[in-house]
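Batch manifest, entry 17 of 40.
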Amino acid sequence: MGRHGAVTFKGNPLTLAGEEIKVGSAAPAFDLTCFGPNGMQHITNADVAGKPTIISVVPSLDTPVCQVQTKTFNTRLAAMGDKINALTVSLDLPFAMNRFCGAEDIKAMRSGSDYMDRAFGRDFGVLIDELKILARAVFVLDAKGVVQYAQVVTEVASEPDYDAAIAALQKLT
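Output type: structure tokens
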């Protein structure tokens, strides 16, 4: 099942696989892969339970807009410290995500890769069927994992609404 024309890339309509996530619904279960000091690790819903969480979804950290999005959220969320969880999710390999975050001093956000099975992309309704990459999106979950904010950016080459996402997160802290 897909939503054709749900997003565009440079004006071309694309199809998102999966159902749209609605505010008020429980976030789907996820299992992302990250590379850390102890090698390959997983980030799941259980790892973010108990605190408000922002999930910034990007097509690839090797592209300019995705880099701006990740750096902007990292800078703006740093002041919230350990009151929140912050994730960047893409299909980039965990090693590439780790390299980028290290080189750019991304410390306020953890990076999680959906490269294994693209289940996050399908379950959150952000997998671009034609390109097999994730659309640009932001989700804010409360401490119980209920979606309180969701934005799928309609033009993949555009940045998300940082202010609205951060305002939704701040209401929960």
